[in-house]
Structures are given as C-alpha cells and as structure tokens.
Amino acid sequence: MTTTQSSATVTPAANAVLRVPPASPAAAAAYFGAALAFHADVSDVAAALAAGGDPGFVVLDSRSTESWDQGHIPGALHLPTGLIPEQASQLLDPSVPVVTYCWGPGCNGATRAALALAELGFQVKEMLGGFEYWAREGFEYETWEGRTRRAADPLTAPVGAGDCGC
C-alpha cells in the first residue's frame, strides 16, 4: 500500500493466524474428536482415579526406574518403553484401555509407549502434560520416600478450585 492509497480500498494481507483459513466445522469436529480419542488430560485422569472404584483404564509410566523412583502417579504401572514388547502382554489386559505418561510436554516417551502398545493391539491414550503437569497441578504422587504433593502452580491449575472448568 502506498501512502497515497486509502486504507479503505486495499484488502489487508491475512495475519499469520488467518493466512491459512480455519477448517470447516465438520473437519474441525472430526479432528478434535480424534484428538480426544488419542489424548487424556491430567485433571481428567486424576478425577477418574479419585472417584474410587475401577476407572476403566490402567495408567502406565513409561520412564526409567530412576525416573519412577523420583516420583510417579499412585497406582500406576511401571513399564519402561523399551520393555513393552516383551512384557506388556504379561502385565496388561488387552480389554482394558491404557493411559501412558512420561516426564512432560517436552518428552515424547509417552507417545513412543502408546505406539508400542497400539502395535501390540492395546487400546491406548497418552496423558498430556505427563508427570510434570501431574505434580504442577498439585496431585499426590509417590517417590521412593513415600507419598507427597506440591502446591498447585497457579499457572497450570486454579488455586482453591476442584477443577478448571474446561
């Protein structure tokens, strides 16, 4: 646009957000529905486990023994990703969905574990945020010294509320 042109007559270039237009509502519904079929939220996993009884899934920590000892979700099964091919069928019921987790969003170990389990025929979801967000949201975890918890990080969980309302 030159300085002599009126801004009313020039169509502005799309910004980076809209340079590629949003998907159609039907395509968006299919995509986001599929995303929820593959992922579980830390808060949703915690709520299902806290409700008592059988949550209908198994939580699997795919990290190393050293990582497990530093902290893990109470009741989780420890099965490092590298051992899944040889041990999963002995430890898991193929009719029960598995929710995998690793360290956190900067780690794709839970994704690799989910892939290994899916290739063996297990129903699987990945827990977004991993152990990092479990601890940051203030949920109880176990270490080699026993159970503990941290105060909820106000940037990841509402202070004094049962859930975020998402």
Based on the structure, what is the oligomeric state of the protein chains? single chain
Give the mean pLDDT. 90
Gyration radius, to the nearest Å?
A: 21 Å
Report the order of strands and helices. Answer: HEHEHEHEHEHEE
Distance between the termini: 43 Å
* Strand neighbour order, sheet with most strands: 1-5-4-2-3
Rough outline: globular
Number of strands: 7
Largest sheet: 5 strands, parallel
Unreliable stretches covering 5 or more consecutive residues: none
**Which structural class best describes the helix and strand composition?**
alpha/beta
Which percent bin holds the helix content? 25-40%
Strand-residue fraction?
Answer: 5-15%
| SS element count, helices | 6
Structure overview:
The chain has 166 residues and is α/β, with parallel strands linked by helices. The protein is built from 6 helices and 7 strands, in the order αβαβαβαβαβαββ. It has helices at 25-38, 42-50, 65-70, 84-91, 109-119, 130-136; strands at 39-41, 58-61, 77-78, 98-101, 124-128, 141-143, 146-148. The strands form 2 sheets. It has a 5-stranded parallel β-sheet with strand order 1-5-4-2-3. A two-stranded antiparallel ribbon has the order 6-7. β4 (98-101), α5 and β5 (124-128) form a beta-alpha-beta unit. The protein starts with 24 loop residues before the first helix and ends in an 18-residue tail after the last strand. 25% of the residues are buried. The model has no long low-confidence stretch (mean pLDDT 90).
